[in-house]
Amino acid sequence: DAKTTQPPSMDCAEGRAANLPCNHSTISGNEYVYWYRQIHSQGPQYIIHGLKNNETNEMASLIITEDRKSSTLILPHATLRDTAVYYCIVRGEGAQKLVFGQGTRLTINP
Amino acid sequence: GAGVSQTPSNKVTEKGKYVELRCDPISGHTALYWYRQSLGQGPEFLIYFQGTGAADDSGLPNDRFFAVRPEGSVSTLKIQRTERGDSAVYLCASSLTYGVWNEQFFGPGTRLTVL
Hints:
Mean pLDDT of chain A: 94
Strand content of chain B: over 45%
Number of helices of chain A: 0
Oligomer: heterodimer
Radius of gyration of chain B: 13 Å
Low-confidence stretches of chain A: none
Largest sheet of chain A: 5 strands, mixed
Number of strands of chain B: 11
Order of helices and strands of chain A: EEEEEEEEE
Low-confidence stretches of chain B: none
Shape of chain B: globular
Helix content of chain A: under 10%
């Protein structure tokens, strides 16, 4: 699976949009981009995934660049409960396991 | 409905002892995964079951680690002759079936401390 690069930490004000970037320049055509988050002392939680089209669900939006070499997870109106480590994962269609990197520690400030 | 549950939530043991960690997946989920998370790191894959059989055990660090899922539901991760380096949070996840489109639901983890 392709390697991902994320900033180690980010801050965002409560109520503002949080935009978390991820680089995956070696992604191949059949690899999906997944986002999970892990709130302190809990297991990771699935957020969203996509292949090449932008995706939106009740939690977030995922914007994937046309060349698929990078993506951005958008939390439209961040709350204090969104403080967590966010993991961007690239996963091939035949792969079952998730390969986690270091993630981005997002802190939402009041 | 009930999520993935793991017992115990915390386990303290002494170096050299044997431990068993249990995972109850979401009812009806056929795929089950074990991960290990060291302090400050992301989770690391250990083993994956599809039904009763281990489909991929490439992440098990050595032969002291073994996992079973005899009836295709509950799974037990077994660690023999524990070492201080085995201290970590052991996470279990399940998904409805295999395939990249099936999200994995994680349990809260078992924190293992080897003294």
